[in-house]
């Protein structure tokens, strides 16, 4: 008698490809911990924070995120969780499903500021900053982008000059997440030896971080300018292991990886909102989910959403194996953010007029993703990264 084939699980509209089967029990535990935290601490208030254009409890949220191990997750030692890249990605997905601003808080803290110190800092710098940053007691920011230099950081004007054994920094940085609440800023500046990174405590004379207002995207996020007006730092403020643009670019690559996952969180929130709305909203005597055009939209959204999650998981496995290339991160960022925006826009059409209301998450995610689309590398820059990798020809200059 032939063996009976294993029974197939029922189709899950929220996991149509069965991607949860790819996750270990530890992965699922991390995901569920972050999902539960976001549901409890962010979702009930995020529409109000967004409408007000502020994140009033950012310091409290940072400490809570530290307590669940979400800050500097993939880093080891110094109070960091030492999680896998896949687990960090799942956390980013769940945080951005709540709001891009909260995921940005975590990304900048862990993948930019903490990663820079962990990768390029001295033993003393790591001991001084990382434990308190992992606990969320000190918030960090990352100063690379300038008012006139975003995609071309090599042309930055911020400079650091030697003054005896000290350094003196002058310049401005722009669009800096966490800037005005940070206790320490990782600032990149031109020196006679090339681009170097400096750790600037926020109470250093000459340093200020005025908050940027009037944003229509990432409204529940602290965004600032950094002003360095003759900031004098001791010799041990420089990151000793980073010389040249390779330092800050490696940090950005680490943060972009989190965006590959996070964008799918925003997309998932919009897809699930549209699916539930379509099943309950009636027109012409039946739920709009029963109409062919709506079903076509939902099917296309589901396909791109779960393809994007599968891509993110694949890149996470490559990162865990030490095989992830920057070009592959560009591949993921380019695809997943573009598709996430399209999913949000399609969800908006299903919700009709309700799609613009903060009673639903769709328009909030759509506007947030307009920032995610261009920060940490615009669409065009990632296209050119891939174009160079594919052709061997550099189209960035001349």
Automatic annotation (TrEMBL):
<dbReference type="InterPro" id="IPR036250">
    <property type="entry name" value="AcylCo_DH-like_C"/>
</dbReference>
<protein>
    <submittedName>
        <fullName>Acyl-CoA dehydrogenase family protein</fullName>
    </submittedName>
</protein>
<feature type="domain" description="Acyl-CoA dehydrogenase/oxidase C-terminal">
    <location>
        <begin position="245"/>
        <end position="390"/>
    </location>
</feature>
<keyword id="KW-0809">Transit peptide</keyword>
<dbReference type="Pfam" id="PF00441">
    <property type="entry name" value="Acyl-CoA_dh_1"/>
</dbReference>
<dbReference type="Pfam" id="PF02771">
    <property type="entry name" value="Acyl-CoA_dh_N"/>
</dbReference>
<comment type="similarity">
    <text>Belongs to the acyl-CoA dehydrogenase family.</text>
</comment>
<dbReference type="InterPro" id="IPR009075">
    <property type="entry name" value="AcylCo_DH/oxidase_C"/>
</dbReference>
<keyword id="KW-0560">Oxidoreductase</keyword>
<feature type="domain" description="Acyl-CoA dehydrogenase/oxidase N-terminal">
    <location>
        <begin position="24"/>
        <end position="137"/>
    </location>
</feature>
<dbReference type="InterPro" id="IPR006091">
    <property type="entry name" value="Acyl-CoA_Oxase/DH_mid-dom"/>
</dbReference>
<dbReference type="InterPro" id="IPR013786">
    <property type="entry name" value="AcylCoA_DH/ox_N"/>
</dbReference>
<dbReference type="InterPro" id="IPR052033">
    <property type="entry name" value="Glutaryl-CoA_DH_mitochondrial"/>
</dbReference>
<feature type="domain" description="Acyl-CoA oxidase/dehydrogenase middle">
    <location>
        <begin position="141"/>
        <end position="231"/>
    </location>
</feature>
<dbReference type="InterPro" id="IPR009100">
    <property type="entry name" value="AcylCoA_DH/oxidase_NM_dom_sf"/>
</dbReference>
<keyword id="KW-0285">Flavoprotein</keyword>
<dbReference type="InterPro" id="IPR046373">
    <property type="entry name" value="Acyl-CoA_Oxase/DH_mid-dom_sf"/>
</dbReference>
<dbReference type="InterPro" id="IPR037069">
    <property type="entry name" value="AcylCoA_DH/ox_N_sf"/>
</dbReference>
<dbReference type="Pfam" id="PF02770">
    <property type="entry name" value="Acyl-CoA_dh_M"/>
</dbReference>
<keyword id="KW-0274">FAD</keyword>
């Amino acid at each position: 008698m032939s063996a009976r084939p294993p029974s197939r699980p029922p189709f899950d509209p929220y996991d149509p490809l069965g991607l949860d089967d790819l996750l270990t029990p530890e992965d699922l535990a991390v995901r569920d911990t972050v999902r539960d935290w976001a549901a409890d601490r962010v979702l009930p208030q995020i529409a109000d924070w967004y409408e007000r254009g502020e994140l009033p409890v950012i310091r409290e949220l940072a400490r809570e995120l530290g307590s669940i191990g979400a800050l500097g997750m993939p880093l080891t030692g110094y109070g960091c969780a030492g999680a896998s890249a896949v687990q960090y990605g799942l956390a980013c997905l769940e945080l951005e499903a709540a709001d891009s601003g909260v995921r940005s808080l975590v990304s900048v803290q862990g993948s930019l500021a903490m990663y820079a110190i962990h990768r390029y800092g001295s033993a003393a710098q790591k001991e001084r900053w990382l434990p308190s940053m992992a606990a969320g007691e000190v918030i960090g920011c990352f100063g690379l982008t300038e008012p006139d230099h975003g995609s071309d950081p090599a042309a930055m004007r911020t400079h650091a000059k030697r003054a005896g054994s000290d350094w003196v920094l002058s310049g401005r940085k722009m669009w800096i997440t966490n800037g005005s609440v940070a206790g320490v800023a990782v600032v990149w500046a031109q020196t006679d030896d090339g681009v170097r990174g400096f750790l600037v405590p926020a109470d250093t004379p000459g340093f200020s971080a005025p908050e940027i207002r009037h944003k229509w995207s990432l409204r529940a996020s602290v965004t600032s300018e950094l002003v360095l007006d003759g900031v004098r730092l001791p010799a041990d403020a420089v990151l000793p292991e980073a010389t040249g643009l390779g330092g800050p670019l490696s940090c950005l690559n680490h943060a972009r990886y989190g965006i590959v996952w996070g964008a799918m969180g925003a997309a998932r929130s919009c897809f699930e909102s549209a699916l539930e709305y379509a099943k309950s909203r009636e027109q012409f005597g039946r739920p709009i989910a029963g109409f062919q055009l709506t079903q076509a939209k939902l099917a296309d959204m589901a396909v791109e959403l779960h393809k994007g999650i599968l891509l993110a998981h694949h890149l996470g496995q490559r990162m865990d194996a030490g095989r992830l290339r920057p070009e592959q991160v560009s591949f993921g960022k380019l695809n997943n953010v573009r598709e996430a925006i399209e999913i949000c826009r399609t969800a908006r059409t299903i919700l009709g007029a309700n799609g613009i209301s903060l009673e639903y998450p769709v328009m909030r995610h759509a506007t947030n993703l307009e920032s995610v689309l261009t920060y940490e590398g615009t669409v065009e820059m990632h296209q050119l990264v891939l174009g160079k990798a594919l052709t061997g020809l550099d189209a960035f200059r001349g």
